[in-house]
């Protein structure tokens, strides 16, 4: 069975964005880009909420073709254009969307069907609202967090309205020279 892994940058106090969705506090550099690029290159499915998908779709399809594109831009653009994308949205339709499927209803059933299909892990990128929905339905199998050395004090939390405890097992950690710490957790399903 495929697993859904939530990939997020997070502040030390648990926020994934500032109060107005700002993410200018997130530290990324070539070391992190290279590390993340290796891991996601093994993935064949990306899961997004509508807002994050639209942000990605407005940037990644063509950025690798620009004359000033970085190594990361070229590699990630190529990956993004080839990966199967799943979007959780009640307002979007699949018309004219390349490599993209929309899930708008029956979330538990549709996600569990997706997990049963052949393929590698499903990476849930950003998308706090989608993540909150999947957490409530106990559909996330792991968390791949990049803890940034900052305390925001307020913003959009990664974990909110949690009904029951979620027990985790740390499977990997890594410190980057920027001060960001990678923490990978597996959810202990019962």
From TrEMBL:
It comes from the Bacteria. Signal peptide: none annotated. InterPro entries: DHFR-like_dom_sf, RibDG_C, Riboflavin_Biosynth_HTPR. Pfam families: RibD_C. Residues 2-180 form the Bacterial bifunctional deaminase-reductase C-terminal domain. This is Dihydrofolate reductase family protein.
């Amino acid at each position: 069975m495929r697993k859904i892994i939530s990939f997020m940058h997070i502040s030390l106090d648990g926020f994934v964005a500032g109060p107005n969705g700002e993410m200018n506090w997130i530290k990324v550099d070539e070391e992190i880009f290279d590390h993340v690029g290796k891991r996601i290159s093994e993935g064949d499915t990306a899961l997004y909420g509508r807002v994050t998908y639209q942000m990605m779709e407005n940037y990644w399809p063509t950025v690798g073709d620009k004359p000033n594109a970085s190594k990361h831009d070229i590699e990630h653009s190529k990956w993004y254009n080839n990966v199967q994308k799943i979007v959780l949205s009640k307002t979007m339709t699949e018309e004219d969307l390349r490599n993209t499927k929309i899930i708008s209803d029956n979330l538990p059933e549709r996600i569990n069907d997706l997990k049963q299909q052949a393929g590698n892990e499903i990476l849930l990128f950003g998308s706090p609202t989608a993540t909150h929905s999947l957490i409530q339905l106990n559909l996330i199998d792991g968390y791949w967090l990049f803890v940034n050395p900052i305390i925001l004090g307020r913003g959009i939390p990664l974990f909110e309205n949690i009904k029951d405890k979620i027990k985790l097992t740390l499977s990997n950690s890594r410190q980057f020279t920027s001060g960001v710490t990678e923490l990978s957790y597996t959810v202990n399903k019962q």
